[in-house]
Amino acid sequence: MSRTVAKIAVSAATYWLDKPYDYLIPPELAEKALPGMRVHVPFSRGNRRSEGIILAVSDQSSYEQLKAVLTLLDEEPVISEEQIRLALFMRERFFCTVYDAVRAMLPAGLWFDEEGRRRAKDKNQEMVRLVLAPEEAEALRDAKRMRSPAQARILEELCAFECLPTHDLLLHTGTKKPTLKALEKAGAVELYEREVYRRPQIHVGDTRPLPVLSEEQERAFSGIDALARSEKAGAALLFGVTGSGKTSVYIHLIDRQLRRGRSVILLVPEIALTPQMIETFSSHFGDEVAVLHSSLSVGERYDEWKRVKSGRARVVIGTRSAVFAPVPELGLIIIDEEQEETYKSENIPRYHARDVAKYRCAKANCLLLLGSATPDVVSMHAAKTGRYAFFELQSRYNERELPAVEIVDMKRELRRGNGGSISSVLREELQKNLERGEQSILFINRRGANRLISCGECGYVYRCPRCSVSLTYHSANGRLMCHYCGYSQRPDESCPDCGGALKYIGVGTQMVEEELKELFPDTPVLRMDADTVAPVGSHEKLLDRFRDEKIPVMVGTQMVTKGLNFENVTLVGVISADQSLYAGSYRAGERTFSLITQVVGRSGRGSKPGRAVIQTFTPDNETIVQAARQDYFAFYASETELRKIQRTPPFSEILAVTVSGMNEEHVYRCCRMIRQRLDSLLETNASAQVLGPAPLAVVKVNNRYRYRVMLYGGANGGLRALLASVVMEFCRDKRFADVSIFADNDPND
User: Which end of the chain is more exposed for a tag (fewer CB within 10 A), N or C?
Assistant: First the structure.
């Protein structure tokens, strides 16, 4: 007897148990069950009810006895066969389960709450339309004028517009629902439901023509468009100095793709960048633009996803997760500021948007375009070695000059008695801008007021009881806070250990804001960091205020370093250029160079010349000097030499196994045994190297200790498969049931 069997990825299956499980589809569901639909199935020995997703349907199974699918959760597939293949790729590439990958692809509104209800429902609107022919409706209107003027007003409105939302019609005509019902009963009008989309607020001006390209931009556009037109899988790097007009090139490329009937995904690294991007692209492409990012409400994101899936919106703009947008006929993926670490997810699945984009472009035979003023060293190496096509914009649009940059030695400022965070040079430049009515941006990559509070006599420092970090003082609420777990407390009036006086050490955005208010008492200052942009849409309001109210100074973290385009900003100040330079990562130099270069590029983007002041305690540092000169190629040359010695990307792939748990000794022992296992498996592989175990830079977070083993080797699937097998082996080991073990590709921390 024939039977219908579904291959199902089950949500309850952990990584080491993850595989397609065979389930019998009952006859009554056989015609409805399709790949890409979610189901409820019994799982494990206790037949626990669990969600799953159908990967494939066949009439064969190697098992005689099969459990049956309980219910279908969807009326139609929520993911396509292409997305199923992507989920399988992500499982192998990013050490996650298939269901984890599917969960990353779908909006939160499609998932179910604890009571089994979908988190977002379709929104419908009641509409009214004429059933009669226009001439009959007009005759009826005239006949009703004396006997029923309310009905006549409704008919008159519908004669002009044919169909209208019920609420708007009744409000505009001043009538009530029974009047409308009487017309419906008489057969004059019809009430029906129409689906409407919850849209995020987008500030769209008049539809604008495409921007005029300079000769240099036209060359880049023509070359990139030729690659996109070939309909072959490929990748290109667009390198352009800040203000060179990469966005204008993107607009022309998108326009060409839309004309060819293709769709485009544009990724940006920060939610703070999306308002300006959306406004710019919507002014050219209108309702073709959909927005996908985490600041949208559940309903808005669900409806935007539906617009994309149905083909109503063919241009998707969003942050990292927008790379999964279910666009039909994908023609181009653009990753702007492609070097940013925010494109790497730190939660399961730990994917990099660039890797997902590469896979999608390879399968869709289309182009991946990476754009940046400070490209990732790995991407530039791929361009230099011919794996990526390379295009360059060497000058700013309209031939504007790059900002004049001055490096200030803060050690000299200290010797002169200036112990504040703002040097005398920066103070003078700010004063000049205030007098001219021009705006300034100050960048410091630390929120809060002070890095820590310490006792000047015994050295006591407030530390988080759950994490191995000191607490940061926030003057806005007068509390010490941990930026890892959220713990907070009020500081004491004196040292809790010895009673000595407490000193406030270090500088954050709040302290800079307060110092500016002391230096310039009557000057409005706007602060933009994680504390001020927490509410939904608040980053848009802050940026709108800065532009519309021409607030003289904005202080912020790396949210202000990239993508922002304000013509009246002529001064940028980098408060502490050293802050990210000595972090425990091989990328520290690259991140510092990128941050400084990007924020300096926010200055002088209009008709007025720009200036920048970089404050540092190491003014001769090579990376800082290169960033001040905006000399990317000099930085690239020195950085690649260093990485060749370190055997770090692009000269080696880095894989990592991280172990965390409440018992530090147990975590370390598990990590050490993983290292020994890898050593034994790789003893004949001279190209692979294992390092560790070593604690992470912040070893304890929320009472969990974290240690890591690193594996360096060539970029091939063999090492990844080997590491996956080791992780599964130790996850099954009951001796380590109290620890969490996961693998990752080139982790950020």
Answer: N
